[in-house]
Amino acid sequence: MTIAPDYPEGATPLDPNELGGLKHRHITTQAELDELEQANITSGLLWLSRTRRKDVLTNGFVIELHRQLFGEVWNWAGTFRTTGKNIGVDPVQIEVQLRAVLDDALYWVDQGTYAPMEAAVRLHHRIVLIHPFANGNGRHARILADTVLEKVYGVDQIDWTAGSDLQKMNERRAAYIAALKAADQHDIGPLLAFVGLARVP
């Protein structure tokens, strides 16, 4: 692969082996890669709209969703990363920690611990914090959160972008990254505010 990716702030760089997993060798620019990934995500969302699965809070579904969103672009889509990154847990801990997060999310549903949108935002953050995959974690986690809202809670999805492109550096992405970093420090407030949810004291 001859492409030199141009990562926006907060993105996870791919190592050479991961870059070598690109299925389309004709891709040479970041713009071409972005376009290819967006087309794959569009087809993945079509798959998602057709699936009748309700068991979305399982490791198996999380893995399959990533494969559907990125599997036409990357040969490692739908497999847990095996390398350390600038974010995320040790690769050997991914499967266990992911299961723990999903179990917590099921508990939140059963017990009504949080309002649906807050539960989805918290799930999204914890998935991103684990960073299960080599790349695409933010997009995957946002789509997973929306899927939980729709298929588990039966409510509307979150407007994450507010008309902006979260894959490019802009004011909206900067606010998103800052909110994620605050959540990493146990302050979920900015991330809730980011999606338009005022936290009740």
UniProtKB/TrEMBL annotation:
<feature type="domain" description="Fido">
    <location>
        <begin position="57"/>
        <end position="197"/>
    </location>
</feature>
<dbReference type="InterPro" id="IPR036597">
    <property type="entry name" value="Fido-like_dom_sf"/>
</dbReference>
<dbReference type="InterPro" id="IPR013436">
    <property type="entry name" value="Mobile_mystery_prot_B"/>
</dbReference>
<feature type="region of interest" description="Disordered">
    <location>
        <begin position="1"/>
        <end position="21"/>
    </location>
</feature>
<dbReference type="Pfam" id="PF02661">
    <property type="entry name" value="Fic"/>
</dbReference>
<protein>
    <submittedName>
        <fullName>Mobile mystery protein B</fullName>
    </submittedName>
</protein>
<dbReference type="InterPro" id="IPR003812">
    <property type="entry name" value="Fido"/>
</dbReference>
<dbReference type="InterPro" id="IPR040198">
    <property type="entry name" value="Fido_containing"/>
</dbReference>
